[in-house]
Design a protein that fits this description.
alpha+beta
């Protein structure tokens, strides 16, 4: 978690209407990764039922010339969960993420 907080504190970020997307180059791994927080820079992982120690990461990758957007949960630099885009919260995050990427 300390590594991710460091990334959030010193990385670049983009503000969408309800969420901040903090660039997280160390988590790219074949995609473009952004740690997601609310607009007040608070962790949103508990909104998905995850611990405060985890963070939500929005990712974008290009497959066959098409952009794909998805969410994952991370603890430190390890992926812990894939987040299905079926909840309203997940869909809203992905919709805003698409606007900045």
């Amino acid at each position: 978690m300390k590594k991710l907080l460091f990334i959030m504190a010193f990385g670049t970020f983009c503000l969408a209407s309800d969420f901040l997307f903090h660039r997280a180059v160390l988590l790219d791994k074949g995609s473009y990764a952004y740690i997601v927080s609310d607009k007040n820079m608070r962790n949103i992982a508990p909104l998905f039922g995850f611990s405060d120690n985890e963070v939500i990461v929005a990712k974008m990758r290009i497959v066959n010339g098409q952009k794909e957007y998805y969410l994952q949960a991370y603890l430190d630099d390890k992926k812990t969960h894939e987040i299905a885009p079926y909840s309203k919260l997940a869909r809203n995050i992905l919709k805003e993420f698409e606007k900045i990427r």
